[in-house]
């Protein structure tokens, strides 16, 4: 372990990270402009979507956000620089747990960056194993311009799949994102004492209460937000809207809300044009659309789409149908209350990352808690997690820290 | 409603087409196909209520007929699980085939080389009812004769597919049962029951066939072939079947934890059975159809003239030749159910055939997001 950041004060580290992020938040920052094309090529997303993602990642990485998170989790920033007395418990120090590897072989955009940022705040050496677009490598290059120590502390490599798993035995902490079998494979390659931070397959949902459907204007605002939550990243992220529950009994009926959402999607497609869609996804979408239309013709549910097949909304599908999990495609379930949503999630065994809710009614919050969600957000903000948030319900920096205490 | 004269007339006409091609090699011109398709479609709009409602919702009725078969609404295969798609009372069905019990229908979904990790698959079946056996039998035999038995060979059939005596609801089992009864040498073998493969019986019958000098046709799903080849390799056993022997492979690793590439599978088949690669023919169809596609030169699939496919994009419109999209089959032998069937199988039109790509099992995951395959495995 090089410990390149060992003697760099935490505030200097935080400042460097925030300053580099601030430069990256500028759409005209040359390194950012240079990676755009590669990100578009890798993800298939359109340029406005990629720009939006980069704005979200880097605008969130601010000195106040990092400072607040670290202080919140560790008690103070100073504990990363030296011994800090704790009320009645002796002194403590937060030392780097050891080298960290972030395996980010295929994620949406910049998912590995918050993990890397907090691992660097913990003064760990960090290797991010990424693919193709070199976003992380370019960001790390900017860090070096802020402080020389990052040249050794932060490295980005290309992940070539399971063969690379053999190289994970030297890391104290391994962070990985992916499907459960991939995580199991990576976990098996870690050293026995290593900390494994796995972000497995999760989905996000939305819940619209009847109270929030009090009038057309409120309903339209929710629909605008839900449309954004659905279209960003082609519905591929764990924070994408994968199922929407709409309560009956509001002034605006669910079918009117669905129509509003369809209209909002037409507008969202303009702001965030659809990305490249493979033949397989198109085939599954076509099949799902045809099945929904077949059911609708028999009096079950409704289907909303457009001629160009940019989106698919299915109102009131059978509860036995799992989420569509297709680009810009969404099932809208009409429910009497959150217990119906809970039953649906339970029935399909869906692990939830976040819940977009139109109101924080107690039973809605309980549904989110019961679903083990890590976050509740308003519609439209589902895809914009805060740097202080807890991805996967985990602390941000704590996984990279080794505590040492001094007895009184 | 009993078997009507209208149904009988249509069946007779379709049977004439099948017979003309089967016995005399007469094809169907575009105009002839169009004419017959329009009449079958109009008939289905009158008698197949769920299909008519669906078409009506899309603005297609007997009073507003589509300009061509390309515009006939196709039902997704999953619709066979949702409704009884039949032009007659299914209580009178002479055949009723069930989909294989996976979430996505069709019995044959060639996904050679794709990674399907769904170890557990929800069992939800659909049914395809046939009013008479005549069309189904005539269609399958004509296709098999043309594409598998062009040399009129009398073969011994070894089947790695369900025995119709055990599983009458299997369309593949029924098809091979008819073929064996009509074209076999009387020594047919069945080696698959459920997931059990009877390798000892196969080995014994294989030895007998070789001793008799009898050419064989081994018919099976890709997955059954993999199992058999694995077992034979473990036993260090291989065969050299008589010249003229052949293999009919039909796709299917769906719901299986292991997949192999087509190249690897065919290399194994050549090594295990001594049957040359050019004698291995891939067949492709599904429970929801009455006719089959078969490999031709360069592994381009061809169908008898009463079965055509169009390749569609996301908007449902027909794609140009060579562009990959979803396959929609229009099968005139589906007279008593629904002639146009939309699948999730990918392919591209090439000349008068198709290149089958199979079914993509879901886009590669983005990080910690959930995809359909993972969800299916969880469930």
Structure explained in plain terms:
With 408 residues, chain A is of the alpha/beta class. Chain A is 40% helix and 19% strand. In chain A, α1 (10-24) packs antiparallel against α3 (47-60), α9 crosses α10 (254-271) and α12 runs parallel beside α13 (362-370). Helices cover 33% and strands 20% of the residues of chain B. Chain B has helices at 5-24, 30-47, 49-57, 79-82, 133-147, 171-183, 199-212, 222-234, 262-273, 372-378, and strands spanning 75-76, 95-98, 127-130, 156-162, 189-193, 196-197, 216-221, 246-250, 280-284, 293-295, 301-302, 307-312, 325-331, 340-350, 353-358. The model of chain B is unreliable at 102-123 (pLDDT under 50). Chains A and B meet through α8 and α11 of A and α3, β1, β14 and α10 of B.
Q: Please identify which CATH superfamily of the largest domain in chain A we are dealing with.
A: Aldehyde Dehydrogenase, Chain A, domain 1
For the termini of chain B, the CA-CA separation is 42 Å
The secondary structure category of chain A is: alpha/beta
Profile the largest sheet of chain A: 7 strands, mixed
CATH fold annotation of chain B: Rossmann fold
Q: Spans of chain B of 5+ residues with little confidence (pLDDT < 50)?
A: 102-123
* Level-1 CATH class name of the largest domain in chain A: Alpha Beta
Number of domains of chain A: 2
Q: In which order are the strands of the major sheet of chain B placed?
A: 6-5-4-7-8-9-10-11
Strand order of the largest sheet of chain A: 10-11-12-9-8-13-14
**Share in β-strands of chain B:** 15-25%
Tell me the CATH architecture of the largest domain in chain A. Answer: 3-Layer(aba) Sandwich
Largest beta-sheet details of chain B: 8 strands, mixed
| CATH architecture verdict of chain B | 3-Layer(aba) Sandwich
Quaternary status: heterodimer
Helix content of chain B: 25-40%
